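Write out this protein's structure.
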Amino acid sequence: MLFLLDTSLESAEGFATVTEWLGNPLVKLITWAVLAALLYHLLAGIKHLVMDLGIGETLAGGLLGARIVIALAAISIVLAGLWIW
């Protein structure tokens, strides 16, 4: 992803090259996978910050929090996939 960013910022030709690469289904799939991992990591991090505040520290609360994170991650990953494709 950093390579694509660097190439796109080098020149107008580099930007056109990256735009062409992003039309490739394999590159779209890789981008979606990276974005999916980042979205899940973000949501799980927010859950841990909420737990640091003392909310959901019990076993039942932790289980509920994990289910909420998985559901929100699934929804956001599908939405990201729709946005990319």
